[in-house]
Amino acid sequence: MASRTSWFELSFMETSTPETSEKTRKGGATTEQEMEGHVKGTCDPCVFFASVRGCVKGIQCDFCHQDHPAMNKDAFSRPRKDRRRRMKKTIIEHLSIEDVEEMHTALQSEARRHPYIRMIIPLFLKQTS
Questions:
Q1: What is the pLDDT of residues 52-105, one digit of tens each?
Q2: Which of 30, 33, 38, 114 is the most buried (most CB within 10 A)?
Q3: Is residue 1 part of a domain?
């Protein structure tokens, strides 16, 4: 049976390696296990890490704080207009959550649902900062 390719491998042109990514978690280094998941492409990138605000959780964050290459827009199909509208509405609703930790968890959950959402969340974070 052939192994399935993760959405991460499909969505990005290349994967970062520890040698090409000098940046580690803000406030501390990543563990060996986290680095292994990052190199394999099985990590879950933090939606706040690359934003202007940065991730307020620092080393307490459960998501990957390594540099990730730009998304390859051709690797996934763009959702239809109505679905994109609903996705954007959901992101806006999550950004209005007062509790930062709850907002972070909600946005991470949405980012896991579709590569398009992961691609547009940083655009919304840039607008709100």
A1: 778 888 888 888 888 877 777 777 888 999 999 999 999 999 999 999 889 999
A2: 38
A3: no
